[in-house]
């Protein structure tokens, strides 16, 4: 004769809420500091939002750096590696002040990109306005499309 095992109720609301909470904690920890163990306090790493777009004459890179000034940002090119780094201002606690929630980041950041050999790294133009760093990387003249005129014979 076959043994029968009672079926447990896995789909209860309490169990689903617990699973959702565990999944949220996992993702929050994984995205805050990749490679960090669960037991460590998770302070979010500052990784400024970046857009990279290509157009006919080159590439445009934009980084959101709210509250920063051009003096807070370093842009360097070494070989084919473009590195943008800087330090966001500190939000240190004042005497008699205790944070209950802290979402504004302070500290250093670094973003690096490999540049295609079609780009002219010697002629990068960098501007900073309204908390947005914009880099214009022109294409080398020899890599830009050329129109060849077709003649009749």
Strand and helix layout:
Layout: H1 13-32, E1 50-55, E2 58-64, E3 73-78, E4 81-88, E5 107-114, E6 125-129, E7 132-138
Antiparallel strand pairs: 1-2, 2-7, 3-4, 4-5, 6-7
Write a short abstract of this structure.
This protein is an alpha+beta fold and 153 residues long. The chain has one helix at 13-32, and strands at 50-55, 58-64, 73-78, 81-88, 107-114, 125-129, 132-138.
Mean pLDDT: 78
Q: Which band does the percent of strand residues land in?
A: 25-35%
Query: Which stretches of 5+ consecutive residues score pLDDT under 50?
Result: 33-43
From the spread of the alpha carbons, the general shape counts as flat
Rg is 25 Å
Write down the CATH class of the domain at 50-92 and 105-143.
Mainly Beta
Succession of helices and strands: HEEEEEEE
Briefly note the CATH topology name of the domain at 50-92 and 105-143.
Immunoglobulin-like
Distance between the termini: 94 Å
Q: How many helix segments?
A: 1
Helix content: 10-25%
Strand order of the largest sheet: 1-2-7-6
Describe the biggest sheet?
Answer: 4 strands, antiparallel
The number of distinct β-strands equals 7
Helix and strand content put the structural class at alpha+beta
| CATH architecture group name of the domain at 50-92 and 105-143 | Sandwich
Give your account of this protein's structure.
The strands form 2 sheets. This protein has a 4-stranded antiparallel beta sheet, with no helix packed on it. The model is unreliable at 33-43 (pLDDT under 50). The protein is an alpha+beta fold and 153 residues long. Helix content is 13%, strand content 31%. The protein has a domain at 50-92 and 105-143: Immunoglobulin-like (Sandwich), CATH 2.60.40.
């Amino acid at each position: 004769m076959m043994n029968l095992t009672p079926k447990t109720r896995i789909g209860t609301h309490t169990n689903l809420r617990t699973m959702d909470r565990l999944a949220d904690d996992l993702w929050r920890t994984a995205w805050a500091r990749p490679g960090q163990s669960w037991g460590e306090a998770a302070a979010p790493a500052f990784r400024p939002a970046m857009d990279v777009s290509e157009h006919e004459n080159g590439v445009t890179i934009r980084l959101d750096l709210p509250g920063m000034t051009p003096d807070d940002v370093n842009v360097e090119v070494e070989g084919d590696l473009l590195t943008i780094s800087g330090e966001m201002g500190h939000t240190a606690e004042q005497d008699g002040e205790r944070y209950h929630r802290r979402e504004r980041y302070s500290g250093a950041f670094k973003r690096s990109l490999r540049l295609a050999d079609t780009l002219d790294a010697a002629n990068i133009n960098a501007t900073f306005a309204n908390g947005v760093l914009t880099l214009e990387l022109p294409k080398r003249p020899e890599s830009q499309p050329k129109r060849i005129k077709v003649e009749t014979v």
